Amino acid sequence: MSDTALRGEKVVAALKKRNFEAYYAETSAAAVKQALALIPNGSSVSWGGSVSIQQSGLLDAIKSGEYVLIDRDTAKSGEEKAEIMRRALTADTFLTSFNAVSEDGVLLNIDGNGNRVSAISFGPKSVVALVGINKLVPTEADLEKRALSVAAPLNAKRLGIDKAENICAIFVKTRMCMTKGRIKIIVVGEELGY
């Protein structure tokens, strides 16, 4: 087993101890296959702004599948977009990633509007997250450093925001999945997202 796979499996074991449903996938293709197996056909699906679900091909697979999409990118106005983001909180499944995951199974996300962290915290019946191996950090103490020094600047650049701190409005650290298995995390043995 490769060092990457060993590290991924270690994190999966730690996540399971914290009541997350967790899997390891060597490749993005395998991760997408696993994610699709967790989402029943005909269910409603939404997502936040996640480069990981785009890069992996999961978003394309969902859009071409048999799902009811709650897609904020179809909005014709800012008001309609906000309404669609609110509806996403009632989706059967919400797709996302995390800015950082510690090797002992703690998750961190930083959000601008709060729609993504709200959906992760409460609302959708199921959350499915793809996490690239690049987002793993040794300890809980390293979570914020990675999120602020790596994820925030790259996301600010992607979104055309002049200062990374302008998208760092809400920090949510998730240490335990209170509804066992509601949050499903697929650790991917490739780099995905920021």
Descriptive tags:
194 residues, alpha/beta, six-stranded parallel beta sheet, four-stranded mixed beta sheet, 10 strands, 37% helix, 23% strand
Summarize the structure.
Strand 5 and strand 6 form a beta hairpin. With 194 residues, this protein is α/β, with parallel strands linked by helices.
Could you characterize the architecture of this molecule?
It is a single chain. This protein is of the alpha/beta class and 194 residues long. It contains 7 helices and 10 strands. The protein has helices at 3-17, 28-37, 51-56, 58-63, 78-87, 115-121, 143-159, and strands at 21-25, 44-47, 68-70, 93-96, 100-102, 107-111, 126-132, 136-137, 170-174, 183-188. The strands form 2 sheets. It has a 6-stranded parallel sheet with strand order 1-10-7-4-2-3, with helices on both faces. A hairpin with a 4-residue loop joins strand 5 and strand 6. The radius of gyration is 16 Å and the shape is globular. The model has no long low-confidence stretch (mean pLDDT 94).
